[in-house]
């Protein structure tokens, strides 16, 4: 009878070891998967995923999706509308236009365009442009104001290449 109790004890111990090893493996695998999911940046994509192809051009417009012509402006430095008057904005802005004709008109009217941009920028407060939503709204307003000056075409996009508030 003592031999039976001893045999059961050994068998139970082996089963416990297997159970503990299984739990450790499951917890380790779960921790590893959790780590991969939590640290998942841009490089955590599965290898089988192919990069997205650019959308096809719109019907009737063979240049749709192709970048337009860039018009680079000199830097703008303005005082922001602020109670203390101590905040400055330095911005460098590029405008995308669809054709050389629009670029030529843009260049011809550069003084008028700089004027409307300076007035718009200096009317902004730090609170309005410090957040992403404010910058996106400012892009829309810049595009609308510049398009009011142009007569032969329209600006299709606005890019901030420098945007510093001090």
UniProtKB/TrEMBL annotation:
Report which superkingdom the organism of origin falls in.
Answer: Bacteria
- Tell me the compartments it is located in: Cell membrane
Q: Report the GO terms under cellular component.
A: bacterial-type flagellum basal body; plasma membrane
Q: Does the keyword Repressor apply?
A: no
Cite the Pfam families for this sequence.
FliL
User: Any stretches that span the bilayer, and where are they?
Assistant: 17-37
Q: Which InterPro entries match?
A: FliL
| One annotated GO biological process | bacterial-type flagellum-dependent swarming motility
Its topology with respect to the membrane?
A: Single-pass membrane protein
Q: Which UniProt keywords apply?
A: Cell membrane, Cell projection, Chemotaxis, Cilium, Flagellar rotation, Flagellum, Membrane, Transmembrane, Transmembrane helix
What job does this protein perform? Controls the rotational direction of flagella during chemotaxis.
Family membership noted in the UniProt record: Belongs to the FliL family.
**PANTHER family associated with the record:** FLAGELLAR PROTEIN FLIL
The protein, known as? Flagellar protein FliL
